[in-house]
Amino acid sequence: MIPIISIVGKSDSGKTTLIEKLIPELNRKGYRVATVKHDVHSFEVDREGKDSWRHRRAGSHSTVISSPQQLAIIRDMEHDASLEEIRDRFIRDVDIIITEGYKKDSAPKVEVFRKEAHREPLCTRDDNLVAFVSNQHFDLGVPCLDLNDGKALADLLERTVLTPDIQQRVCLKVDGKNVPLKSFTGSFIEETVRGILASLKGCNNPQNIELTIG
After folding, report:
1. Residues 160, 99: contact at Cβ < 8 Å?
2. Gyration radius from the chain CA atoms
3. What architecture is the 4-45+81-162 domain classified under in CATH?
C-alpha cells in the first residue's frame, strides 16, 4: 500500500514551497513521488474549444488525453474523494503520495507554520501529526524541523514511512511481553523519542536507545 503524507497549514504558510523542496530530496534518494492537491472549489483543467473540452461538453463521463510524454484523465465525481480512494483507484507505480491540503483527512500530517503569518498551530498529535515544520520552535510532541530544510523532512519520511524494517529497529515490551508494531506506529514512537533526545545535551545522534518506564 502506498503511504500518504499530507502537508497541511493555514493560508500562506508555505505548503507548496515546502513540497517543492521535499520532492527533489526524495527523488535524490531514489523514490518516486505522486502529489495530490485538494481544492474545495470546482476547477477546470481543459481550455474551452479544445477537443477534450468538446468531448466533455457532449456528455463524456471520463476523458483521457494521451501523448507519448503525458497522460491525463478527467472524470466527473459525485463526491469529494478521500485520499484512500484516490490512491486505490487512480495512483500506481510510486513509492509515496504527498498531498497539499486534506487537513480533515485521517492521513499522517506534516504542518507548515510561519510565525509572521499565524499565531497558533493548526494541528496537535491527536490530528495524526508526525512533524512540525516552522521558523519557530513548538513543543508538540513530534519532531520540529526548520522551514527551509527539505532534506531533514525527506530523511524523516524515509525513516518513518519508506523504510520497511521498522520492526527490526523498534521493539516494544509491556510487562515483559513483546507488542507487535505496525510500520507507522513503530516509526511514530521512534521519531518522537528521537525528537525529545535532540533537545538534550549530548544526545544529538544516538545509534541505540533504551527507554524503561517502571
Report:
1. no
2. 20
3. 3-Layer(aba) Sandwich (3.40)
